[in-house]
Transcriptional repressor
Amino acid sequence: MSESSTLRPTRQRRAITEALAGASDFQSAQDIHDSLRQAGEKVGLATVYRTLQAMADAGEVDVLQGSGGESAYRRCSTHHHHHLVCRSCGRTVEVTGPAVESWAEAVARDHDFAEVSHSLELFGICADCRQQ
Amino acid sequence: MSESSTLRPTRQRRAITEALAGASDFQSAQDIHDSLRQAGEKVGLATVYRTLQAMADAGEVDVLQGSGGESAYRRCSTHHHHHLVCRSCGRTVEVTGPAVESWAEAVARDHDFAEVSHSLELFGICADCRQQ
DNA sequence: CTCCGATTGAGAGTCAGTCTCAATCTACCG
DNA sequence: CGGTAGATTGAGACTGACTCTCAATCGGAG
Ligand SMILES: [Zn+2]
Ligand SMILES: [Zn+2]
Ligand SMILES: [Zn+2]
Ligand SMILES: [Zn+2]
C-alpha cells in the first residue's frame, strides 16, 4: 500500500544481506561495514546504516539495543520471539515465552493501555564461556 | 562495606535527587539539567550525567534505554520490577511478573547459561492519551 | 582553622548515527 | 537499443548524547 513497491536489489543490498546471513550472532552496523570491506565489497557506511534500518523496519532483521546506545542486527526467524545472549561471546539463542506474551497482555489490560508492545532480552554467560 | 565511604551529599547531588523525587516518569539527563536550571539551581551537565550514572550503579534509580540511544532515569522502588510506559505521554507504571521471572530462569537453565539477567519493558498508549 | 582528597564544570573530544546532494544505477518505455 | 524518471549511493559535514580533562572549589575529619 505504501512502501514495498520500491526496493531495488542492488549490489550493496545483496552484499549486506549476505553478510547478515553468514553470521549467527548480533553485529553492529560498523561490524558489518568492516567485514564487507574485508571481503572486498566497497559499501558506504551510510548505505549500511540505511539498509539495516530498512530491513529492521521491514521486520527482516531483529535489532538489539546495546547498553552503549549502539544497535546490533541479526537475521532472525520471522515469528515473534526473544533472545538469550551470552554477555561474553555474543552467542545468541532464539527463545519464545507464551507465558510472557499472555502476561504482557494481561498487564496491559489491567492498566488500560492499548497497542502494547514489549522488549525482552535475556543476558547470561554460556556454558562454553564459563569453562575457561 | 567497600565504597559507600566516599559519597558526599553536595548541593548538586541533593538538587538532582530532589528533581528525581519530584517527577514520577522517566526523564533524560538533559531534562533534569533543564529543570534544575529552571529552578535556579546551577549544576553542570557533566555533573548531572555523573550523578545519574552513579545512582544507577547504586541501584537507586532505574534506567530506560530510549530508542534514540538516550537514557532516561526514574526514582523507583528497590525491589525487582519492570515498567509499562505510555508511548505518548510517558506515564509509567511499575509492574511485576512472577511468571516472567520463573520463565527466564527456566530458559536459562535449559540452555545452560549462568548469571542470567533480563531487560523487559512494556510500551503502549494509556487510557487518557487514547481519548483525545 | 587546616589540609587533602572528593567534587565540580567549562569546554574539548568521542562516537554512533543521520543528512546533504551531486554522481550513478535501474527499471522500464518507445 | 538509446532515453529518462526515479531510486540509490557515498564522501563528508553535521548532530546529539555522552565522556574526558584539569584547574578551581568544596567539605569534613582532625
Ligand atoms: Zn559465550
Ligand atoms: Zn514477546
Ligand atoms: Zn499517555
Ligand atoms: Zn524481571
Remarks:
- Residues 45-57 of chain B form the longest helix (13 residues).
- The CA atoms of residues 109 and 116 of chain B lie 9 Å apart.
